[in-house]
Amino acid sequence: MKIGFLGTEIRLDLIKKVVNTFFTDIEPVYIVDGKDFYNIDTEAKLKELKKDMNGFIFAGELQYHFYNNIFFPDIPCDYIRKDWSSLQNSFLSITLKGIAFTNVSIDSYSSSLISNLMKDLGVQNDNCHIKIIERRNFDKTYSENLYQQHKKMYFNKEVKGCITAIFPVYEQLLKDNIPCVYAKPTTDVIRKTIHYIEEQYHINMGKTRNIAIIIIKIIPKKEYSYIRKDEYLYMHEKIKVAEEVYYFAKNTNAAVVNESIDKFVILMNKKDLIEYTNSLQDFYLLNSIYNNTNCDVNIGIGYGFNPSEAKFNANLAIEKADINDKNITYIVPSTNSVVGPLDFLVIDKKENEMDIEDKVFLELSRESGVSQSVIYKIYVLIEKYKKNTFTSLELSQKLNVSQRSASRMLRKLEDSRIARIVGKKVTGNLGRPSDIYEIKFTGR
Questions:
Q1: In degrees to the nearest 10, what's the CA dihedral of 230, 232, 236, 238?
Q2: Strands annotated E in 109-192
Q3: What average pLDDT does the segment 186-199 reach?
Q4: Is the pLDDT assigned to residue 104 strictly greater than 90?
Q5: Contact 307, 210 (CB under 8 A)
Q6: Architecture of domain 2-81
Q7: What is the CATH number of domain 209-342?
Q8: Cα dist. 232→226, 239, 264, 343 in Å?
Q9: Which residues neighbour 97 within 8 Å (Cβ) at sequence distance 6 or greater?
Q10: Does residue 229 surpass a pLDDT of 80?
Q11: What's the whole-model pTM score?
Q12: Which CATH number applies to 84-184?
């Protein structure tokens, strides 16, 4: 993903540090512009760059005001906003110069933000002598007017120093030997702004790329590494993984379009994937494979306008997983962007103990004689369909087992008081009505 940044050199240096530390996957383009007024050459340069940009961030509100119309609404754009943390840092800097932060002039920050910060710092109104320079329309004289107001208040002894977020104003105040601090954006604000642009870009990509390809790569768990050496054992475990994969495909209107010795390739509608994963918050398939087989997996997901593009992006995603990665998911919405690594596995990786949910399923399995994997599948059905009453026919269809097996399973759950008959339902034109079972794993 290519993101452009425009601003003064000092602000771009701060942005570069954040990008180099936290955003190694993006391709930044930096444009130094120290002008505090609209410039036709800058406009022309940005228009030329627009065709290559996936997003754009202005280092300050002034440049955003002048040039954001070049990108909006075609390309996500924003500016590095001023928040309480950057102002608080400025208060600390001016204090270190021996000047009380309660006796300074401030520009670019709203009076409500300053007032709220004063309350948080426990400063009483009687002790606060801050002079706020209210914002006005941005024009060619904006910076000069700010400078003159700061200068006048200082030489009239209304304040002891100045805090400004406009770099040309800061430079002029320094030349006049007026004590001042340049309000710099914090790392957190810069990170949030870049994250926002990334999110907006991915949302825009998602609106048009409706095909999803999922590649699932099978990796025998470390403690079962001997499986890889035994073809029979490996295929036995792969069949277990296949059961989970095909069950997932059946319930999400997906299709398993390819299968190799260590991979499954699934084609589906992106909308169904988003719904199944609760907007990419959970991925039950990964947990099902982990809990019911002796295999770990890595998952690569690609989006595309067509299956070919989605598969290409899914291959890029699966290649992102390191050789030591286990149960990690990467998503490639387009060739220029990557989301991940995402960790959907619901376990405590710091301990080798089962989590509480697994312990509950194991206990229920011991009580009823129904396998733990089937208990988990029934639990998933209850969560997915938001109902806990089933006939044997309904359960057999949803679990993909025979009705006789489903009836036997329900009787076992009834004997262990996990299920109980709460009514009857006619499921066909002939024969007796079927029993309706209520299944309760908790609160029995």
A1: 60
A2: 131-133, 161-164, 180-182
A3: 89
A4: yes
A5: no
A6: 3-Layer(aba) Sandwich (3.40)
A7: 3.30.70.1230
A8: 11, 11, 19, 30
A9: 161, 179, 181
A10: no
A11: 0.47
A12: 3.40.50
